[in-house]
Amino acid sequence: MSADLGAAGAWEPLLWCRSSIVQSAACAEIAVLDSPYFDVADKDGLKREARASASLAFTGKCAIHPAQVSTINEVFTPSQEEVSRARRILAANQHGVGAVDHQMVDEAIARKARLILTRAGIVVGIEA
User: Fold this and answer.
1) What number of other Cβ atoms are within 10 A of residue 104's Cβ?
2) Rounded to two decimals, what is the model's pTM?
């Protein structure tokens, strides 16, 4: 895409394209992976870009070298804190609208909590 647009190959110049891809994937209810980070030796750069991809709601990131896989997995795997909070959100949502950590919990927040648990490999059921 950067070649077709004549844009720099960095993450930011393609933000609009990435956003469009994420939105289309969400509407189609499919997972979407961000393009690879091409500097195999720059682990910190990979981590920064993977975090940006995750915050934009990509499901994962492609790797071009096996050494990148552990960093990508680290970024895209929910932390224990995120898992714990997601469980509390679903518990509060069992009775409709509730609150967790002084934040309102409604069905949209509960859907995101279910997604976090799914990405953590946790089967989400009524008792979640």
Assistant:
1) 10
2) 0.82
